[in-house]
Amino acid sequence: MAIDPRVDIGHVHLKVSDIDRALAFYRDILGFEEMQRYGDQAAFISAGGYHHHIGLNTWESKGGSPPAQGTTGLYHVAVRYPDRKALARALKQLVEAGVPIGGATDHGVSEAIYLRDPDDNGIELYRDRPQEEWPRAEDGSMSMVSEPLDLRALLAEAE
């Protein structure tokens, strides 16, 4: 049985060690709106007024450290921007805030910037290309690639 194609990912909860530090990144640098907060235990943030796209909580992690390398868990959270210009503006905010960029890839179907949040959670900021621009194999199936993304060219579009 196939999943209903209308299903989507509604939100993600991230365990963080410090709510204020996490909000300084997600709210103040990436620009998410704080919708609700429960002291130093949890905060719910969104884009565009939704109840929350990301939940940040310290319920099991207050003062904790990131998971050790070689363990299972969340690889990254992907935040999709509506177009290239919006992704360029996000990149500009990161650069201006001095946030290190871990990588940047053109996947053919999308353009992605990779980084880590203050708790070492993986973050992907990306934009999808229109489906008619996706690379295709000879049989018509999607054929993603991993090519370098020119961040200087992308940053030039933030103006």
Task: Please supply descriptive tags for the structure shown above.
five-stranded mixed sheet, 2,3-Dihydroxybiphenyl 1,2-Dioxygenase, domain 1, four-stranded mixed sheet, alpha+beta, 9 strands, about 160 residues, single chain, 3 helices
Describe the structure in brief.
The protein is of the alpha+beta class. The protein has three helices and nine strands, in the order E-H-E-E-E-E-H-E-E-E-E-H.
CATH class annotation of the largest domain: Alpha Beta
Uncertain parts: none
Q: Average pLDDT across residues?
A: 96
CATH fold category name of the largest domain:
2,3-Dihydroxybiphenyl 1,2-Dioxygenase, domain 1
How would you spell out the order of helices and strands?
Answer: EHEEEEHEEEEH
Q: Describe the sheet with the most strands.
A: 5 strands, mixed
The number of helices is 3
Give the CATH superfamily of the largest domain. Answer: 2,3-Dihydroxybiphenyl 1,2-Dioxygenase, domain 1
Helix proportion: 10-25%
Number of E-type strands:
9
Q: Which strand order spans the largest sheet, edge to edge or round the barrel?
A: 5-8-7-6-9
- Content-based structural category: alpha+beta
CATH architecture of the largest domain: Roll
Estimate the global geometry from the Cα principal axes.
globular
Structural domain count: 2
* Distance between the first and last residues' Cα: 47 Å
Q: What is the gyration radius calculated from CA atoms? A: 17 Å
